Amino acid sequence: MATKNKEAIFESAKQGVLYAGNLIVGADPCQSAIVNTTPIDNSVIGKIDDASENHVNQAVTSARACFNNGTWKDKHPAERKKIMQAWSNLMKEHAEELAALDCIDAGKPISECINTDIPATLDTFDWYAEAIDKVFGKVAPTDNNVVSWIVKEPIGVVGAVLPWNFPAQMFAWKVAPALIMGNSVIVKPAELTSLSAYRMIELAYEAGVPQDALQMVCGRGEVVGAAIGKHMDIDMVSFTGSTEVGRLFLQYSAQSNLKEIVLECGGKSPQIVFEDAVIDENMINNILSAAFWNMSENCSCGSRLLVHSSKKQLLLEKLVAGLSDWKMGDPRQDNVALGPMIEQAHFEKVVRYLEITKSEGASLVAGGNIHIGMGSGWYIEPTIFDNVTADMTLFKEEIFGPILAVTTFDSDDEAIRLANDSSYGLAASFYTQNLKRALNVASQIQAGTVSINGFSEGDITTPFGGYKQSGFGGRDNGLEALEQYCQTKTIWTIS
Ligand code: NAD
């Protein structure tokens, strides 16, 4: 398949012909479509299939047949590895095209898509492809007359239900580990961002992934997502999205076949600046990235800044100055760091949070404006509110938009208490020069990823997921992710 550069994708978007559809073996064509608009200027860029429960049933029938007949799972691991590597190589050839699809579909800055999202997506596929023939079972220390193998078997038919904020990357986080374990995978991308998933699966088929081992059902969460969650013949669902919808998947499981559920959900992550921290350019860049990267539509967004009272004034001055590097505008332009909110409804939700925060008495330090001459897209300036207290809405709720809450503290205990005062526990970062304090704080913070003197979600080698209501049942990334996608069997052999 010919590669397309970003200009070709942007041109197709202008003509309204971009399409993402069902990829289901032998299924009925989809009779209805969802109009797909870009948040950049709210124009129509194409359409996606609006699948029904019946399409999910058809995908599961093929996925189960594939699993039972072993076309994918019983291939020699070296053979599966070659196919996964060929797929990754094809995606590398199409990297600019995939980046442009995420940019136009989600309004993400093209520079981010090219330099971060797609390289991270490719790393994920490369890493798991390489792992295929390096993961194997154990022998237990039993009596001499017994050999007991503990083996890992693929779990069966996997549903991967994805969010819209990192379309290509979240696809990779689920699909790569699920496939390498030998499962049959059914992907349900977010209805707002299905384009890159569709293209990546087309490339998977070109590389040799059997079509019934990797299928896609496009459409609405309450139809397709729910049908996946409730299906009696899906063995597990790996979900990334809001805590609210994550809860539904636990209910779907309870109401159907007790399928395994792994949830990666929301967050309200703290960033802490202690009194001994060095306020330099590196710290300012890290704090602003944690707060505003990806328009703050980021589960691990560092949306609560806890600062020692002695450091607040200087820190705020530097943060406000640093915002001048965060150019907002049309995300198709290379020098833009912030694009629009994903859609009108989400934009309006974030604007409501701006109003609530003002009415609750926080002090606006920077930003707070909307639209600012960007045409009809859904743009909100990066915004900082000071004097946010723990009882305010902004302190408690995940906004998923560019509003940073600043709260002061006077002791380490107070900082830790404030940091943990959340129903979420996905990530945290803090700044100190004191090793003893660093070790103490790192061990007391309730979060799946804690970064010291910087902001990071880790990389593909490290597990990612949340404490408390940020997650459930497992981790993405690293070898830990493979646990989601397999069952453990004991084979007890008596001589
Ligand atoms: P969402 O929960 O609205 O949707 C996620 C997926 O669930 C979509 O595919 C959607 O179609 C589907 N869905 C929606 N309603 C459904 C229903 N009733 N039944 C079944 N499926 C349904 O989330 P979103 O708005 O796409 O993404 C934003 C959220 O994702 C934020 O809360 C963010 O924190 C979270 N997130 C978490 C991580 C992580 O790794 N922890 C990563 C990225 C995003």
Automatic annotation (TrEMBL):
Pfam families: Aldedh (PF00171). It comes from Moraxella catarrhalis (Branhamella catarrhalis). Keywords: Oxidoreductase. This is Aldehyde dehydrogenase. Belongs to the aldehyde dehydrogenase family. Residues 33-491 form the Aldehyde dehydrogenase domain. The active site is at E264. Its EC number is 1.2.1.3. One of its GO terms (molecular function) is aldehyde dehydrogenase (NAD+) activity.
